[in-house]
TrEMBL record:
Lineage, highest ranks first: Bacteria, Pseudomonadati, Pseudomonadota, Gammaproteobacteria, Cellvibrionales
Protein name: DUF3299 domain-containing protein
Pfam families: DUF3299 (PF11736)
InterPro entries for this protein: DUF3299 (IPR021727)
Highest taxon listed in the record's lineage: Bacteria
Length: 173
């Protein structure tokens, strides 16, 4: 058991905000006034409505750009990391039970509802061994080598990809 813990220590823990360039993060932390004026639970509170409102509002181009940003933090390219998140299955192995390709996203429901998070908040993942996902509600820790590679498909665009070494159920540490 000690060797497993040691191996996990070789991965840098990364939070989702670590993957966002400072200017994009600043734009998200300072959204246009129209976003802040939305009443919780209203139709306008839905993510799609917020993005549409932001895109329609003149003069807030920095926020609009951040919503679709593929800008990455180049220093992460090739690093062994661990990152928490939720899995959006994309492809199953030959047995049709083991997920081999998926998106990792920062919150439950991302990519299932339109629109998805910004590309620099989506990680495309490949896990050759595959794994069974019992529930979309369960978060996981992914361990692997991250790349600053854009991957696009019908579901979303990811600005990062990761070759997964291991997947563990999420626990706070």
């Amino acid at each position: 058991m000690a060797s497993t813990a040691f191996a996990q220590d070789n991965y840098q823990t990364v939070e989702w905000t670590d993957l966002i360039p400072k200017d994009d993060l600043e734009a998200f932390l300072n959204p246009p006034d129209s976003i802040n004026e939305i009443e919780d639970g209203s139709d306008a509170d839905k993510i799609a409505s917020q993005i549409k409102a932001a895109l329609d509002e003149p003069g807030d181009s920095r926020y609009q750009q951040a919503l679709v940003s593929t800008k990455v933090i180049a220093e992460f390219d090739g690093k062994a990391i661990r990152i928490p998140g939720f899995i959006v299955p994309l492809e199953f192995g030959v047995d049709r039970h083991h997920i081999t390709k998926f998106f990792l996203v920062p919150y439950f429901g991302a990519c299932i509802h339109v629109p998805p998070p910004p590309p620099n908040q989506i990680v495309y993942a490949e896990f050759k061994k595959g794994f069974k996902l019992s529930s979309l509600y369960d978060p996981f820790w992914l361990y692997g080598t991250i790349k600053t590679t854009i991957v696009e498909n019908d579901t979303a665009t990811a600005a990062y990809s990761i070759e997964v070494d291991s997947i563990k159920p999420y626990t706070e540490e």
